[in-house]
Amino acid sequence: VVLNFHLEKIIALQKNTSNIRNLCILAHVDHGKTTLADCLVASNGIISSRMAGKLRYLDSREDEQIRGITMKSSAISLHYATGGQEYLINLIDSPGHVDFSSEVSTAVRLCDGAIVVLDAVEGVCPQTQAVLRQAWLENIRPVLVINKIDRLIVELKLTAQEAYIHLQKILEQVNAVTGSLFTSKVLEERAEKDTEAAGTGDGGDQVYDWSAGLEETDDSHLYFSPDQGNVVFASAIDGWGFSVRQFAHMYSQKMGVRSEVLLKTLWGDFYLNTKAKKIMKGAQAKGKKPLFVQLVLDNIWSLYEAVVTRRDKEKVEKVISSLGIRVAARDSRHSDPKVLLSAICGQWLPVSQAVLTMVCEKLPSPLDMPADRVEKLMCAGARRFDCLPQETQDLKRAFLDCKSDPATPAIIFVSKMFAVDSKALPRNKQRPLTQEEMEQRRDVARQRHAEKLAAAQGVGGPERASSEAAPPGGQTYDEEKEHFIAFARVYSGVVRKGQKVFVLSPKYDPLAPGCAPTDDLPAVPHLACRPLGSLYLLMGRDLEELDEVPSGNVLGMGGMEEVILKSATISTNPACPAFTPLNFEATPIVRVAIEPKHPSEMSKLVRGMKLLNQADPCAEVLIQETGEHVLVTAGEVHLQRCLDDLRERFAKIEISASKPIIPFRETVIRPPKVDMVNEDLGKQQKVAIVRQVKDEQPRLPETVQVDPRGLVTLTTANKLAAVGVQAVPLPEEVTRLLEGSSELIRTMELFNMSAKEGRTLALSGKTLEGIRDLKQKLETHMQGHKWRNAVDRIWAFGPRRNGPNILLNSLDGGGGGTTGYRDFDNSIVSGFQLATLAGPMCEEPLMGVCFSVESWDMKFPRQDSMEGGGAPVEGGAQGKAEEDTPESGDAAASRGQARRRTDVALSDCYGPFSGQLIAAMKEACRYAFQSKPQRLMAAMYTCEIMATAEVLGRVYAVLSKREGRVLQEEMKEGSEVFIIKAVLPVAESFGFADEIRKRTSGLASPQLVFSHWEVIPSDPFWVPTTEEEYLHFGEKADSANQALKYMNGVRRRKGLYVEEKIVEHAEKQRTLGKNK
């Protein structure tokens, strides 16, 4: 009955957009998000207030309950009345574990506000910073709940005064994070304005005053401050919470002071002068108790002392009578004092009331969406808002108006797809029977019973009795099938069941030709037309079916799994652009190969992996060239959850997963000055190395020549072309810059491709500024003789045209070049792409390597003597094969024809000439790479561990055992906790969290986030020669060559040749004869 009433109320409230609040709960892991959500859910009578915090209602998965952490974001709709208004609150609970930060992104996109929960003891943690950054990027307004204040009393045993100072520090820490985000935004905008001014200005000298932008911009509304009403102090497990405003109202009546005055003075350096009966400033300087301590904290501390610490019955009764509340006898007699405490606090300061009042007053409704957020959502990638078609720009008005009338175009964003069981769908649920239905069933049962008796006596026919044996109204549904529901929000218009809509996938472009609504749909890429399936109200574990949903609401949509993979934009107007992709904080890096236990079940596994890929926003499913099915996840916990889902829900078969596939990168370094045992490499050894290179040359194929500088010249199989390539290590700053700018490089590549196809791609000012900035930084970092004009000579980036490796054009002449060379420049670039995608050490991608093409000689037949087979004409390499002038269509066609003729003429028993050139370039790059000192690069995690002093030594022991390196260790102010920051190779991280927890008895738990790539200093090809080296690195020595171990592991996994002894001391093998 409660739920039915609740449902009707919510459907009525959905129509009043100004009173809707869409919000998510964000926090670090174990800071109390789900417990707080339980308290808010209990306020609506959906669960018992006694069970709040124990039930964890929004953690509906079994593994979430077992592990005690949230793994997916789930939504519930609540109603709340305050100030004579009724509000609808769409609450989304999100995970705090770093492995599931992608779920936070999906939740944040659908919301207008966020509750940031903070542990009063631990303060600002790494994931707190991450969620604040995500909220900032999506431009949503946060409010703060400082939770677990009971720990300050019970665990840390702080006095009220100490707790006040501690809470002040925590607020400063949070505001420092917000302040840094705000400062960077203001400085960015200021820089953009200055660049525009410089572009349009008179070119005179300008003096940049960076501080001016910060002074002019008002940032007071951004920060958390109790007197602004955007902070609540709470203990969700004990069921109490308050804002300063509540106490200001309470005391204004008692003290006869206006509540506005109390609101401003309750938090801050103010004290009560009892003689003058005035509130005065300067509590700290005069050694007085601040008002907040005197009027607020002291009361809570004395309540805890009476109920929990001393269990003083008389004092408790006084407190109860003074507060004017009633406590049940069974609560006051209960053996656990926390039950009595919850009963008192739940009536005096209910946490749900404090939090929901703050949410309704401080967070915006869907009508208050900022215009810049709308533009940001509509401009995917590098596009400018004013470059979108006029029809698309007009939709901005629809976003801002957020109307629900049928004339307004419907715009919906689906942030993720989630799987539900058939049993959970409303149509398959058992509903309570009405009185008439119960009577009808009773009559049928009586009739059947009479027929059975008659049949037993041989009066009736047995056929008739058996035909009615099936129970009436029995529901049959396919229990095996997983149903996908789209987690979405309506931004404009009204959505109805069965309504025809356009589904726009993330790559959809309203600028693409032929995207007008009247055109034939099958011709338009990334656009599908589909009627909407069932619409659901998301109620935590339950779904309730709806007929229509007005704008501004969060909803679930069924029947969209065939057209939506992970996220999509849905609209009734095809001029609507696809929304900006979600910002994912975690990078999926942990890979495992998966195969079924029984090969015959391969098809089930493939289907299961497709479903998993759709159901998880962060997981990736790949099929490698080797035919392996690979699952890529964000971390160990995420991997375990994905494997469990595959076994139990999606594939429903026994599967075996390989050991995690660890990614590596290959690179070259400058010749080292010291050897493996840190002894200087003298000139003699350098000479020996050069001799060694010369000695090795006969073993190279006859088409390859290597000179002492490392320049490799390789001739194609048909002897018609020769390419000279040299490998040089890139400066570390350049590698980092290229890795961070991969999106920008991809945009440049898209622009070039569009230009070649004759289309123009309008780039936003920010992107153009980014490209100029990238070029400037590259010029700054690439200094010295060998990098002269290097930025202007960049031919391509690789692998996949946007990686951290560079192909340089160091050919003589630099400019023009003949058409023949221009025809084959693509082959050179393709060879470079292949070489950088799989290096020679263990077929892993290269990183931080610059390949410089020093020479390129080709001999091609004359064009006029093609048919007659004339003598070849020699040509030296003149320049980079790149067109500076656009050519007409006829010229392009004739050039393509000439190229085909050339290729046919140069095609021989070795295949087309362009293919030979690709192979030659690839091999030349590989040999050039091998002629330099090679190293492996390992992926590194940054690891943040919070631990107390007594387990610090054990944490260090585990880190050093796993090749970890501690960067920083600091003690958190006001607590006994140390924060250790370290880096740890991904290869050594599996089982790390479990081992830390075991060794420290659960007192320390690490947060691992992928950080960067680091060169492993040891040379994998080094062989010990001297006695001292044998002592350090001999075959039986303790310290093995780490890089060689990793390299051989990867080679063995990929089925490549591994140089190792399989049998040692074969003559000493024990035989059967000796055993007798």
Automatic annotation (TrEMBL):
SMART domains: EFG_C. Residues 867-878 have a biased composition (Gly residues). The keyword GTP-binding applies. Keywords: GTP-binding, Hydrolase, Nucleotide-binding, Ribosome biogenesis. GO terms for molecular function: GTP binding; GTPase activity; ribosome binding. Residues 438-452 have a biased composition (Basic and acidic residues). Residues 428-476, 861-899 are annotated as: Disordered. Signal peptide: none annotated. Pfam families: EFG_C, EFG_III, EFL1, GTP_EFTU. One of its GO terms (cellular component) is ribonucleoprotein complex. Residues 18-367 form the Tr-type G domain. One of its GO terms (biological process) is cytosolic ribosome assembly. It comes from the Eukaryota. NCBIfam families: small_GTP. PANTHER family: ELONGATION FACTOR-LIKE GTPASE 1 (PTHR42908:SF3), TRANSLATION ELONGATION FACTOR-RELATED (PTHR42908). This is Elongation factor-like 1.
